[in-house]
Amino acid sequence: MGKETKIITKNWGKINSQNIEAYIHAGGYEALKKFLFEMTPVSGVEEIKISRLCGRGGAGFSTGTKMESVQKEKSSEKYFICNLDESEPGTYKDRMIVDNDPHLLLEGIIISSLIVGANKAFICINGNYRKQAHILELAIERAREKGFMGEGILDSQYSLEIEIFSGAGAYICGEETALINSIEGHRGEPKARPPFPTQIGLFGKPTLVNNAETICNIPWIILNGGHEYAKIGSEKSPGTKLFILDGAIKNVSVVELPLGTSIRELIETHGGGMAKGKYFWFAQIGGSSGRLILEKDLDEKLEYDREAKIPVGSGAVLVVDRTVDIHEMLLSWTSFFRRESCGKCVPCREGTFRLWEIAKRAKDGKISERDLETIPDILWVLGNATFCPLGKFAAVAFFDAIDNFRKEILKEKNIN
Amino acid sequence: MTVEKILLGFDPEPRNILPALKKISASFGFVDEENAQKMADYFDISISRIFETATFYDLVKTKKRAPLEIQVCSGANCATKDAYRVIREIERQLKIKAGDQFNPKIRLEIVSCLGQCGNGPVVIINETAFLRVTPRKIYDILKNYL
Questions:
Q1: Domain spanning B68-143: CATH 3.40.30.10
Q2: Which residues, numbered 267 to 286 in chain A, qualify as contacts with chain B under a Cβ-Cβ cut-off of 8 Å?
Q3: Predicted structure pTM score
Q4: Could you give the CA distance from residue A66 to residue A210 in angstroms, rounded to a whole number?
Q5: How far apart are CA A86 and CA A53, in angstroms?
Q6: Mode of pairing for the β-strands spanning A253-258 and A240-247
Q7: So what's the ipTM on this one?
Q8: Are A256 and A241 in contact (CB under 8 A)?
Q9: Which residue among A50, A147, B25, B82 has its CA within the 20 to 30 Å range from the CA of A413?
Q10: The two domains A20-230 and A326-415 share their CATH topology (first three levels equal)
Q11: Which of the following CATH numbers is that of domain A240-321: 3.60.60.10, 3.10.20.600, 3.40.50.1820, 3.40.50.720?
Q12: Which of B7, B74, B112 to probe the A interface (max A CBs under 10 A)?
């Protein structure tokens, strides 16, 4: 396995992705057949556990472990949810997956559902992705005609229905309990755990929620085995990852690379380096909830690891150059989290609101001594006292910005 | 299409509450109390449950919309590409402020990421999306709506 291993993007730009014949011709749905006729759900989970695949949505939890706990639940009704409600700023990898290879996603959804014993799957897609929802609808129809889903898949005993659930624009619905709430017709607020959705999830039934990108790895693992997958990329978290390169670089693109690739390599080799006349200032890894990386940290490797200095998050890499106004970045981050805080818990609702106010004052050059004193308090509360990770995310970039760019942030003050 | 017809397109099950709300909001511009009551009766839940859900989501409107609605993405990626200058330019040309509710005809809103980051800044005017908008281009775009 060289560096060239492509799992998710292997068909991108090569086949007419919306044509199911083309996908089958390129070896598609072979993994489904292999699972149906040569494997059992238990051996399927075993392969995924061996592969050490972990969730690509941001948290990086072991997919095999999650699958196993749903599989072990004794319930006649189980649900599988494909989380395509991607709304992290700077992240559009799942949209690219649907645009370029919808059937790979479907095949992954079908196999994952059958492994855990779900007979109903939901694809929860971002409400703004109308075109992509349409592509998936057509793909589901084609797959049904071919007998890959519906009653008695390929004349086996397995059955599966897939339904598309289009979201209504709420960032928090990327969190799995909030997502479940929104399908149930409630406000998309997160729920306390335990009970975990794997035990009591959608409509009270065991539910597996996986990110779309995670799901796209499943067919490859089933076909080639978990041991082969575990050889790719980093020791701690094997496999490949989609990285979204954007900002002041030459090639704005989505690339698939093994985990463990350094940020420098991403920017210089795959992003083509800095755009003409732009000078590197910092990079933000993992969307608006991600950390800010200075020049000295560029050699850090991106991998899923609890102790990692730089969390991969969604895989978005935003390169910011010297011409960008840090005040506008602060406003962008804080206004985003203020808007998207669901309001369930006070630390997040108030904390994100106050940070936004401070960012506005900073922009107007009116930041006060009192603001500077309270910023650490607000950041601590957001980082430690909120109900779900959204509050924690809201503090990350602000903390790094105050830490590294204090002078730039306060500069306006001296001018006025 | 009447609200009754829209509702009959959905089974009265909890999982259809949000899709029905979205459809009513898109067809009528927003969900008013009368339609919300009809929906509550159809799904056999209280009207407060309908509004509880409706008010949470960006794509479900509960207030009457302005004839000209402009939304600008201010996500970090768009922000590095001058989204805030585009916002200031719109504010200057239309003599309004972002988030202002006073003007009954025009509303300018700053919204969260729309998943078009490679093509930012993104401006949406009455549901039509414009990509790679620059402060200079925005004048020509707005001209067609005034």
A1: yes
A2: 284
A3: 0.94
A4: 9
A5: 20
A6: antiparallel
A7: 0.94
A8: yes
A9: B82
A10: no
A11: 3.10.20.600
A12: B112
Maximum Cα interatomic distance, chain A, rounded to a whole number of Å: 75
Q: What residue type is A378 in one-letter code?
A: I
Given a contact cutoff of 8 angstroms between Cβ atoms, the answer to whether A206 and A223 are in contact is no
Q: Alpha-carbon distance B80 to A329, whole Å?
A: 7
A275's tokens: 């755009």
What residue ranges do the domains of chain A occupy? 20-230, 240-321, 326-415
A326-415 CATH fold: de novo design (two linked rop proteins) (1.20.1440)
69-108 in chain B: CB under 8 A from chain A: 74-80, 83-84
Residues contacting residue A53 through CB under 8 Å, at least 6 positions apart = A62, A63, A64, A214, A217, A218, A221, A229, A238, A239
Summarised one tens digit per residue, pLDDT across range A93-142 is: 999 999 999 999 999 999 999 999 999 999 999 999 999 999 999 999 99
Contacts 24+ apart (CB under 8 A), A407-415: A408/A326, A409/A326, A409/A327, A409/A330, A409/A362, A409/A367, A410/A362, A410/A367, A412/A327, A412/A362, A412/A363, A412/A364, A412/A365, A413/A365, A413/A366, A413/A367, A415/A365
**Closest chain B residue to the Cα of A324, Cα to Cα:** B80
Per this entry, what is the length of chain A?
416
In which residue ranges of chain A is pLDDT below 70? Answer: 1-4, 412-416
Residue B118 at interface with chain A, using a CB cutoff of 8 Å = yes
> Could you tell me the mean pLDDT of each successive run of 10 residues in chain B, 146 residues long?
95 96 95 97 97 95 93 94 95 93 92 88 93 94 91
- For domain A20-230, the CATH superfamily is NADH-ubiquinone oxidoreductase 51kDa subunit (3.40.50.11540)
Domain spans of chain B, in order of start? 3-54, 68-143
Residue A65 to residue A367: CA distance in whole angstroms: 48
- A171 close contact with B: CB closer than 8 A: yes
Residues 11-30 of chain B with CB under 8 A from chain A are: 14-19, 21-22
- From B17's Cα to the closest Cα of chain A, the distance in A is 5
